[in-house]
Amino acid sequence: MDPLKIPLEQLLYLRLGHFFDQLNGRKIPDLYRVVLDQVDRAVLRQALERAEGQLGTAADFLGVDRNTLSRKAKRLKLSATRAQRGK
Question: What Rg do the C-alpha atoms of the chain give, in angstroms?
Answer without folding.
Answer: 15
